[in-house]
């Protein structure tokens, strides 16, 4: 009897160990996720690490959709959309640059049919920082944000970090009407758009635009199809039989009326 029970006991023990291992793996996978009730979307893996490293909510906003595969500039990448950005996983890059931020500033300008190259001033201004790469200046509060806003509570960043998060400027500071119908002083960068909100206390008087939401929800306008004119079909008339030629009837001789003559002399 004991010999019969031993195999059963061993099998049950093995099943129990396997169940515990799977449960631990499942908990480990779940523990790598961070979920947001505001959008009912989770982040995990290198994207979560990157999001938390660079002050996620201020810089990137809430996630809008789970990770997905998409074609970006000719490459198939795993990406995840956030309110302000699109995070992209580049597995062939060195670990420090495996997650990059999409160039949504340039993409959004292109969606609006605006060329950043055409409006470049290419002239340095006093008390500003001039970027020769694109020909634009960054000044005042926007410059302070570009150089120090990775941590809005006062943490400083270096140029490489700012270029990685925001990119180069693609416009001067200017007044624009945004999607909410209100006008703001804004400045466009490769990866983002700065917006001046003077009603907020610093450092939140400069906010990062919701380009992730805008670019993701953009619907390309299509040309209004013109009505096609249906050609009118005109039937070819059926050929009729060739009429018989009538035999010419003889005509009567014409009556010649003599011309009266008059004497030449009286």
Description of the structure:
The model is unreliable at 17-29, 223-236 and 252-266 (pLDDT under 50). This protein has a four-stranded antiparallel beta sheet. It has 266 residues and is of the alpha+beta class. It folds into two domains: 26-102, no CATH class; 103-218, no CATH class. The radius of gyration is 41 Å and the shape is globular. It has helices at residues 2-31, 45-53, 56-59, 104-111, 140-148, 159-165, 211-216, and strands at residues 34-36, 41-43, 68-72, 75-81, 86-89, 99-101, 128-131, 136-139, 174-177, 183-188, 193-196, 206-208. The chain is 27% helix and 19% strand.
Main pleated-sheet profile: 4 strands, antiparallel
Helix/sheet category: alpha+beta
> Measured on Cα atoms, how large is the radius of gyration?
41 Å
Cα-to-Cα separation, first versus last residue? 175 Å
State the domain count.
Answer: 2
Q: Could you list the spans in which at least 5 consecutive residues all have pLDDT below 50?
A: 17-29, 223-236, 252-266
- In what range is the share of β-strand residues? 15-25%
Helical proportion?
A: 25-40%
Identify the notable features of this structure and list them briefly.
266 residues; 7 helices
Question: Care to give the gist of this entry?
Answer:
This protein is 27% helix and 19% strand. The protein has 266 residues and is of the alpha+beta class.
Outline the fold blueprint.
Layout: H1 2-31, E1 34-36, E2 41-43, H2 45-53, H3 56-59, E3 68-72, E4 75-81, E5 86-89, E6 99-101, H4 104-111, E7 128-131, E8 136-139, H5 140-148, H6 159-165, E9 174-177, E10 183-188, E11 193-196, E12 206-208, H7 211-216
Antiparallel strand pairs: 1-2, 3-4, 4-5, 5-6, 7-8, 9-10, 10-11, 11-12
């Amino acid at each position: 009897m004991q010999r019969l029970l031993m195999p059963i006991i061993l099998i049950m023990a093995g099943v129990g160990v396997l169940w515990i291992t799977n449960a631990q793996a499942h908990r480990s996978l779940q523990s790598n996720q961070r979920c947001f009730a505001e959008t009912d979307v989770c982040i995990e893996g290198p994207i979560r690490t990157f999001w938390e490293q660079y002050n996620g909510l201020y810089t990137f906003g809430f996630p809008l959709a789970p990770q997905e595969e998409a074609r970006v500039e000719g490459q198939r990448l795993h990406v995840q959309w956030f309110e302000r950005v699109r995070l992209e996983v580049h597995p062939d890059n060195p670990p420090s640059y495996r997650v990059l931020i999409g160039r949504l500033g340039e993409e959004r300008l292109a969606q609006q049919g605006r060329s950043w190259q055409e409006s470049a001033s290419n002239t340095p201004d006093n008390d500003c920082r001039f970027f020769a790469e694109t020909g634009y200046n960054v000044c005042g509060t926007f410059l302070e944000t570009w150089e120090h806003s990775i941590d809005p509570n006062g943490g400083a960043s270096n140029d490489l970090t700012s270029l990685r998060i925001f990119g180069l400027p693609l416009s001067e500071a200017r007044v624009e009407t945004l999607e909410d119908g209100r006008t703001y002083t804004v400045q466009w960068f490769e990866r983002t758009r700065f917006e001046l909100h003077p009603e907020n206390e610093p450092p939140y008087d400069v906010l990062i635009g919701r380009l992730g939401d805008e670019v993701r929800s953009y619907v390309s306008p299509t040309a209004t199809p013109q009505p096609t004119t249906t050609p009118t079909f005109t039937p070819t008339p059926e050929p009729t039989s060739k009429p018989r030629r009538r035999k010419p009837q003889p005509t009567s001789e014409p009556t010649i009326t003599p011309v009266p003559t008059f004497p030449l002399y009286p």
